[in-house]
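Cont'd.
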Amino acid sequence: MDAIDLARWQFGITTVYHFLFVPITIGLSALVAGLHTAWYRTGNVKYRRMTQFWGKLFLINFAIGVVTGIVQEFQFGMNWSAYSKFVGDIVGAPLAIEGLLAFFLESTFLGLWIFGWDRLPKKVHLASIWLVAIGTWLSAYFILAANSWMQWPRGYTYNATTGRAELHDFGAVLTNKVALATFPHTIAASFLTAGAFMLGIALWHLLRRPGEHGSLFRPAVKLGAITTLVAAVALVVTGDIQAKIMTETQPMKMAAAEALYDTSAPAPFSILTIGSLDGSKEVWSLKVPHGLSFLATSSWNGKVEGINDLQKAYEQRFGPGTYKPNVPLTYWTFRFMILCGVLAAAIALLALWLLRRQRMSKSKWLIRAALAVPLLPLLGNSLGWIFTEMGRQPWIVFGLMQTRDGVSPSVGAGSVLTSLIVLTLLYGVLAVVEVFLLLRFAREVPVESEPSDPEAAEPAFLY
Amino acid sequence: MALTDVWFLLIAVLWTGYLVLEGFDFGVGMLLPVVGRDPIDRKVTLKTIGPVWDGNEVWLLVAGGATFAAFPFWYATLFSGFYLALLIILVALILRGIALEYRGKLDDATWHRRWDAVIVGSSAVPALLWGVALANIVRGVPMGADHEYAGTFFTLLNPYALLGGITTLLLFALHGAIFLALKTHGEVHDRALKVVPPIGIATIVAAAGFLGWTQTLDGSWITWLLALAAALCLIGGLVASRLGREGWAFIGTAATIALAAATLFTTLYPNVLPSTTDAAFSLTTVNAASTAYTLKIMTWVAVIFTPVVLAYQGYTYWVFRRRLGRSDIPVTAQKANA
């Protein structure tokens, strides 16, 4: 493997890993803020215990999200210096603004929330966790604006003298329709993730020890399941909007997602294919007639361009070369992403139904479902990003710069390999430590604390 | 003032903020086994930086992001050029963040001991390497007309840069000791005060050597003045510490770090990364910069939001201004450690 492949693997590994923690942070910060609000408004100690229980799990997760985020900012310059020079005028701004507006907000107010438990006025303490949640949203928006520019560059001019893209309309970068569609989809995915996280852990408690602590985990199952279901609906709606935008802005990605080789009108939506891995020859397949036409164009008979025709068109526009992404990878990641979301929503529905009918039994099958449900959105998120980024290949910035031209010329394969190995090993160790802590605190039932001794309830919040 | 100069100044300010703020929490981390001789004292020590260390580190992230946005060529050449050094810093910062956040999650002596070792190492390594990196930026690196770094990892380990690293290491340790003296009472306070004079003397020697050497690179009367002011603040801080004026002592070391950073950035200007191959190949505030349009937008954002950030970060320090002692560690935790 040369430096390019290694740098791509490193970006893939570090980004997918980072994004395991980010959606939990985005979704769970708001859910914890909601529980804290319930405690503030009702004064009911049940809500305080819930805030502390989910707050602890939130903090364990948040720490890894923060430290792996530093790598994200550094590696653009370290591994992708040619890309950084080319896009710095445009992509640098949202990154810097993300730091100034979001990172300061999150870190400062989280510090206040953790350590201000018995020191801050109640209102300020509550506001702190909400500001953390708002910080995560801001952060998501600016980084997605930067990514969306790479999917569909807007508001720039190409300067032939300097050989780089230059910003001329920042508003167009921030209101890029790809960003406007990706942001709600990402937020919805984050709530699906946090909802399923809460649902899984609470369900496990309820199934293991039905009578005990029902007052703590019954509402959590409900909150988690409803969050998951609402988020799933939002994912379908926003995903549908995204698909239409993708058909217009990156038709090759849409065609690859469906392994549609020839332009078709109407085009069917392929659910499953058995045949050659890249879908070019099929033995058996399950299709929804007219499905892709409707998904991509809102018309049952709309024309959807195929990979072969797009390849020809791109050769004329950009010169000779291959403009196809890895088709099997895009085809299957797209499908499994959707499947993960559907399964999580189905389990959430089942849990709600059981809760209503009071039919929580100690069935092994249900306990397994409870353990699986937090993992499904995590897998779905990863597959979604792998699809989005791999589907853009061979471009790093669609239509402007190819990925192979973006790497650092002065960094040798040995250096990239070293950092790839070091970071992967380090991330592996961190995963073990964080899962160990998460499981330990997820199993531990929060103690019923005496209101007169506020500190006894929160040793885990302290240093 | 040209916008490129405004952004050079802003990035210098962001770095200064980072060094002054994270400087003391690096120092606290390094001194953990020295001032915290038992489990409860170690908890007291770490609790002084608990609410603020993460906010301090964001200064680095914003400095990095601002460099990317305002001077993409500086960011690209620097980050790809200083590759392995930055990797080591990254690993240290990752381990440090996790150690600080996870250490207190379990009440177990082995768990604490292991994370404590990580905290000490991961505080000392970046404290040393940031000095090495900044010194190399000021000194310049081998670089051709393509603005690509032409040296190796070992090019960065030259005597001047190593002295810079030793200076930041000592200065941050001193800054941390003085911060601990200001923020605690009891044994942690007394032990922190005890290490101030020896670290202080070593810092004076290293800083004088380093800032003096810096003058030979591209010195002017301004850089001499700044370096002299840094030296005076350092001595003033040490004297204040001796007199028991801990607030003034902290202001003294904070000002020392700020003035030392000012000396470095003034020496660097108008370059952002000089080339030791040929001065004509140097990256400057002009040839490394983004377009005027980007800089203008960034300036507006910075002008509006920086005061807001300073206000709420200042509020955090105000909320947690009280000195900490053993009685601030909950009884449950004390029992578990007994």
